[in-house]
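ARCHIVE CARD
Drawer: 12
Card no.: 0347
Subject: one protein chain, sequence and derived structure
Cross-reference: see card 0346
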Amino acid sequence: MLSGLSWPAVAALMVAGVLLDLLLGEARRFHPLVGFGNLASVLQRRLNRGRGRLLRGALAWTLAVLPITALTAWLCGAGWAVHALLLYLCIGLRSLREHNLPIAAALTAGDLPRARFLTSMIVSRDTANAAEADLAKASAESLLENGNDAVFGTLFWFAVAGGPGAVLFRLVNTLDAMWGYRNERFLYFGRVAARVDDVMNYLPARLTALSYVLLAPTMTGKRRAWQCWRTQAPAWGSPNAGPVMSSGAGALSLALGGAAVYDGAVEQRPPLGSGAPAQAADIGRAWRLVLNTTILWLSCAAIGALLVTGARHA
């Protein structure tokens, strides 16, 4: 392991970090990722100007990511518990539930204004005039995609490099979310951030997509999830979001993707999945798929630890 931890230790710390997240939730004040976002905003304002924006973006990425990652690696010398604490600060399983299930509750209660407001807090598309099906679709898509970004990618890089690996992944993912746009302002400045995220997310995204296939509730759903992954993902703009969302939508027998409103204009996105349009109840189904995938990954880590321990004592 790059972290210097044994596999049994990694598995135990992984479980501990996830349990801390489920018990405590994200930090309400002084969240490190919020502070990092503020730092990234300052760097962007100061460096995203003039000529040479590709090099300026690379410099900004380096200044934002590498010192913090090095600091966390140094802190991990204080003991194993630091790894679990760093994973807790990076993972967002409980926050996915806290941000999405209230949308389902508002839709079920017929409170469309509240559902629109809550949805606007988690997606970049316009929700002011969104219908129930639009809001349910937005929430389900967010759950499936962020299951990888906020949970499974973090667990993958924790398994590879411990706490510093989880921190590195979340910083990279955060910068991609802030700078990785293909518009005039960020096309060159955010290119390094986008490409590094593509590379670090490549394996986690496909493991997440495979997990969604395996955890589809029926054999028909498993076949549908696999087929949607193979046929729909190549058409999606993101090389990693496509596999994750298409397989997840197929597993849930939902028709996602399609039309969405951004900055007042309707954007026709490629289809995701196959089946019925999303409804309020499907938000809970998407959350359970993410939760079950987390349990699957932790179970695989625990089984691996038992096998390694057994081999050492054989």
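Annotation on reverse: The radius of gyration is 20 Å. The CA atoms of residues 36 and 171 lie 8 Å apart.
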